[in-house]
C-alpha cells in the first residue's frame, strides 16, 4: 500500500487540523468556536482597555449631573458599563488560561459561570443604557412605561440565560435584539429628540457588530471585531448622554421630572 511512502499527493486537500494563527475552523452546527491564542489575546485586550476609562468616564458623568436623578442614573449607567467590560475581560481571560483541553472540573465551572455572567451583564447594560433617555426626558405614556418594561425584560433575559445558557444560540441573539429595540420605541415619543441621531448611530454600530458576533471561524478575529463595535457603540451612546441629557434642563425644569 502507498501509505507511509513519503510521497504527498499535490492535489490532496489541506489537512483540516492545520494550525493557523489568525483563525480556527468554524464549529459544526451550534458548537463552541475555539479561538486561536492570538484571537484570545485580541478578545481580552479589546474590552480590557475599556475598564479604566469607564471608571474615569463614570466620574465625569456624575460630576456633570445637575440634579439628583441625573446623578443616580449616571451611577447605574457607570456601574453597568464597567461591569460589561470587566466581566467580558474576565471571561475571555479564563477562556485563554483554561482552554477546553486544559480544563479541570474547577476551571470548567469557572469558564461556564463567567460566560453566564458575561451574557447576563449585557442585559443589565442594555437596560442601564436606555434608562437615562426614558427617565430624564419627557416621554408620552409609552415611553414612561418603557423604562420599567426594559428592566423587566432585562431580568427575564437574565433568567433565560440561567435556565437555557447556550442552548439556543440564535434565539439568544434575537432576544438581545428585541430588548435593545424596546427603548427606541419610547424615544420616538419624546418631546425633545436632541441626541436621538447619535442614539440611532450607536444602535446601528451595535447591529453591524452582531454580524461579526456570528462569524467566528469565517472572518479572522471576528469576536474581537464585535468587541470593537461594542466599544464604539458604547462610546457614542455615552457621549450622547453627556452632551444632551446632563446639566440644567431648559425644557424640563427640576420639579417636573420624576422617576415614577
Ligand atoms: Zn466577548
UniProtKB/TrEMBL annotation:
UniProt key word Transmembrane: yes
Family the entry assigns: Belongs to the ADIPOR family.
Membrane-related topology note: Multi-pass membrane protein
Residue spans crossing the bilayer: 44-64, 71-92, 112-134, 174-191, 198-215, 221-242
The entry's keywords: Membrane, Metal-binding, Transmembrane, Transmembrane helix, Zinc
InterPro entries per record: AdipoR/HlyIII-related
Database matches in Pfam families: HlyIII
GO cellular component: membrane
Gene Ontology MF annotations: metal ion binding
Binding, Zn(2+): 92, 223, 227
Organism: Acrobeloides nanus
Record-given protein name: Uncharacterized protein
PANTHER family given in the database record: ADIPOR/PROGESTIN RECEPTOR-RELATED (PTHR20855), LD03007P (PTHR20855:SF3)
